[in-house]
Amino acid sequence: MAERVEASVTDGESTIEERDRELMREFEEGLDQPMDEEADMLKDMHGEKSFSMLMLLRLSFQSLGIVYGDLGTSPLYVFYNTFPDGIDDSEDVIGALSLIIYSLLLIPLIKYVFIVCKANDNGQGGTLAIYSLLCRHGNVNLIPNQQRSDEDLTTYSRTSVAEGSFAAKTKKWLESRHSKKRALLVIVLIGTCMMIGDGILTPAISVYKTFFLTVLSATGGIRVNNPKMSSDIVVLVSVILLIGLFSMQHYGTDKVGWLFAPIVLIWFLFIGATGIYNICKHDTSVLKAFSPKYIYLYFKRRGRDGWISLGGILLSITGTEALFADISYFPLQAIQLAFTLFVFPCLLLAYCGQAAFLVNHKEHYKDAFYASIPESVYWPMLIVATGAAIVGSQATISGTYSIIKQAVSHGCFPRVKIVHTSKKFLGQIYCPDINWILMIGCITVTASFKNQTEIGNAYGKMYRTRGTAVVVVMLVTTLLMVLTMLLVWRRHWIFVLVFAILSLVVELSYFSAVILKVNEGGWVPLMIAAISLLVMFVWNYVTVKKYEFEVHSRVSMSWILGLGPSLGLVRVPGIGLIHSELASGVPRIFSHFITNLPAIHSVVVFVCVKNLPVYTVPEEERFLVKRIGPKTFRMFRCVARYGYKDLHRKDDDFENKLFDNLFSFVQTETMMESDSNYSPYSFNHRQESRDELIRNNNNNHNKNMVMFSSMVDYTESAIVPADSPHSAMSFSQNYTVEEEEEDELEFLKICKETGVVHIMGNTVVKARKGSLVPKKIAINYVYRFLAKMCRANSAILHVPHEALLNVGQICYV
């Protein structure tokens, strides 16, 4: 009987404890609610920029120099790499031409220009832009720092999927396990890293291409197979050209585009006109290559050799992968206009012209392009081709800047300096750190080929090397597009299946051809990508763990409010900005700060700079401000939201913008206080729950209140007495009714003029004891090195050194 009574009492206590925990949870939520109400008060003043036809033509012209230089110079070397051992049958030329035609039609034109480019995130392209779309339409983000207020942004576009649909099942499957989210991110990073590898390889290839055109040329054409040329001369000339190319990047996309665009424009006009000339002069029957049956006949005749030659055909579409990444620099309409009406027709004419020449002159397979040029325009063509060859690498350089910027915002790459080079087009950027890293990588790759016995061998080997990177980027893009069509566009699964099959058949065919050449240089982009992937994965992994550490170690808001308006300290003149990654809750560094120092500023603002998976956040919607606790506490929260196009690293006036929004909030709050339904602080929303909780604690669980009181007493013991020298620093030791009723806005302005201090956490990350050796190396050495090399948050936000206070803490992962 006694046991049953004891069990009944225990069950009753357990029920009361569970109820109290639920009330405490609701109470905590009431103390620091999400900023949904503040977000609803922001009005949309942002609109998409429209372009006149004249502006589109101008941007289309500029895009030639930035986007299409690489793709446009492919006719220089495609046939040579397709038939490195010579041409046995004229029909093989027709088959190769047919492959080139349909490769250009299916991949650059249909897949990229008219399908993939439409998956841009409001003008931002690349694999990470697609990943941002997926993060908004599915819960796949590894850092769960988003709130409902973020979804109210003008630019936070998303669509819902119908319950029971194939898209809904796919979404549920993708969100079901953390490992699937991690796998998706790894796939995205692989594509991104391959793009970076392409950015290193392409400039090195361009200088080799230029070297052929300027040094190894003669009046009869290119002498590609010149074994007498010293490799040291090749490397020296290449290094000089690379230094010159990367040194002009700081002028910005706009100026570089105006410089390079005329060269590429003349180049396309030249190759188009030459193609027409060769078709009319040599053999008009090559136009039959538009029939796909010649592809079948080509593989039937050549067998395995024909399949391997796909590695050379692939070079006709290199540069396409950079086209999508470069879409941030120009409007989609400008890129579509330039490619469809100008670039695509000129390329078809150029390849058809070369094929017409080769049908009757098979011995010129090595120098088909120059041998087919009319003698009267040979030297002008050589000069233009030299300039176009240098320009060819600009697409991948600009694309690398764009994807690095996105990777930084997604927490997948160390913070680097990013400079906006145009006031009109914010997408045009320059990354000094990345620029010089690319240059060093290009010089290293170029020097690694100097031991080739023939320059021609090195030339062909470098192109085969690049093919691996290009086709992997295309495969990753296809996989991401399948998810985008299902979750974002909500296309029928049959349409998605057709797209996937057509894309994968073409791209896997190319991949099977280039993978056979891994031992001939194809390992180079794989090695570059592996190093980049290690950097990105380690940085993202630690970033996620640091955020989880912040969330788990945050301080209870009820504890802060229990300290009273003075927070148990002397409130000294000025404003303290407490920086953390938390959009709700009190960061651990704040409790660490107030338990070790006897004073805190009269006004405390918790600042969270948050990157969202959107391309931009309109300026008028960027800052969310709310009050924490009663007015006498003088505590606020400010969340600054940025998209990956904005980059708060551009905000030189971040502090003033923050205070402008804080002052506006106080003014708005004052005007709305007359509304009986308006609560100036979220504490009132849960007043009844708090009273009931306290009553229960007093009656049934005094031990909880003792613990709560002990925390208050402990902190209050740190209050500086009235006769202390520190008391002279405070103009509000005791919060009186008169102070509460004074003009708060004037009070805030006085505090700002008195001084602003930025309090930031200096978190040292270490691997836990007992961790595996690879994890210790990754965290204790790789991450620590990257953290020392990257830009500090204080530098990003332009915090003066004299106004910075770092609070140290250790995070064990």
From TrEMBL:
Keyword Oxidoreductase applies: no
GO cellular component terms given for this protein: plasma membrane
InterPro entries in the cross-refs: K+_transporter, K_trans_C, K_trans_N
Keywords on record: Ion transport, Membrane, Potassium, Potassium transport, Transmembrane, Transmembrane helix, Transport
Membrane topology per record: Multi-pass membrane protein
Transmembrane annotation, as ranges: 51-69, 93-114, 183-208, 228-246, 258-279, 306-325, 337-357, 377-404, 425-449, 469-489, 494-516, 522-542
Protein name from the UniProt record: Potassium transporter
Species assigned in the record: Brassica oleracea
